Amino acid sequence: MNLPTRPQPEAFSEPAADGYPIGGFTWRHIRTDIERPVVIINAATSVRCRHYSRFADYLFANGFDVITYDYRGIGESRSGSLRGFKASWSDWGVLDFEAILQRAQREFAGQPIDVVGHSFGGCAAGLGKSGAVIRRLVTVGAQFAYWRDYEASGRWRMLGKWHVVMPLVTAVCGYFPGKRMGWLEDTPTGVVRDWMMPTPTYETRPSGRALGELPFARVKAQVLAISITDDPFGTVPAIERLLNYFKASERTHLRIAPEDIGEKEVGHFAFFRRQYQDRLWPIALYWLQNGELGADTPGQQIMR
């Protein structure tokens, strides 16, 4: 499919409940349609929302309104140095995603609200107190970085990189200088602290402990979890670990091998690259449109 001329998304700033300004972009059709869904795209940890702009274009071209945004301290939601900046994974979900959920309800009143969450973005989708309004949720490689779930052949290397080197550098710098090191965006200390903890449950992460009752059960959406077999983060145990939190939702886990789509590798980040517009993006699109998998969907369902 050839995309039409790229729409010019509108930049916005939305205050979270604590007043922090969350920046992002809106793809909005000229004519309001009460039946047109609006899709919120939740980014992976320390990945800028601009990474998902082509995918947002694609959804817009297929009839959706779309919102992308950055979590506090990242991209459009960063202001100044991150040294000493207070932010955690739970802040990104409870405050930042919730602010965007409320914005969607206000700006697109009465329209269905869907969510696409990449990596931690799938976890964030379960942390907003307004989660009951989500109609459909598509996650891609979504998990919360429990090291024992990492792909076995690279587990010790990943443990050293993400759970030893990253927190040590963070301790020295007062934040993680990811851009300087070529590892994603600069990242607040609290987020690194949540990531590095070697615990198998979200509620035992530092900011998870502060939540008390976890809000995931508020989400009653039709959930499609997409995982790729060569994603070292998104193994079956990792995906299922997060899916188990969405207890009130109808859940489907689709596992795709690169060879299913004629590729040698895809990994954790490539799903949203334009090269997969005709092979992977239609899977998410069909689910958002219909709440089910298409007949010709590649991969296999993991029985739960």
Task: Write up what this structure looks like.
This protein is of the alpha/beta class and 304 residues long. 28% of the residues lie in helices and 17% in strands. The protein is built from nine helices and nine strands. A nine-stranded mixed beta sheet has the order 1-2-4-3-5-6-7-8-9, with helices on both faces. Helix 4 (155-173) runs antiparallel to helix 6 (189-196). The chain is globular. It starts with 9 loop residues before the first strand and ends with a strand. The mean pLDDT is 96.
How are the secondary structure elements laid out?
Layout (H helix, E strand, L loop, with lengths): L9 E6 L5 E7 L10 E5 L10 H9 L3 E5 L19 H19 L5 E6 L1 H5 L9 E7 L14 H19 L4 H4 L7 H8 L9 H4 L12 E7 L7 H8 L6 E7 L24 H10 L9 E2 L3
Parallel strand pairs: 3-4, 3-5, 5-6, 6-7, 7-8
Antiparallel strand pairs: 1-2, 2-4, 8-9
Helix pairs in contact: 4-6
Protein name: Alpha/beta fold hydrolase
GO molecular function: hydrolase activity
Keywords: Hydrolase
What's the end-to-end separation, in Å? 34 Å
- Residue-averaged pLDDT, rounded? 96
Q: Main beta sheet: strand number and arrangement?
A: 9 strands, mixed
Care to count the β-strands?
9
Unreliable stretches covering 5 or more consecutive residues? none
Number of helices: 9
Q: CATH superfamily, called what?
A: Alpha/Beta hydrolase fold, catalytic domain
GO molecular function: hydrolase activity
Keywords: Hydrolase
Protein name: Alpha/beta fold hydrolase
InterPro entries: AB_hydrolase_fold, Hydrolase_4, UCP037442_abhydr
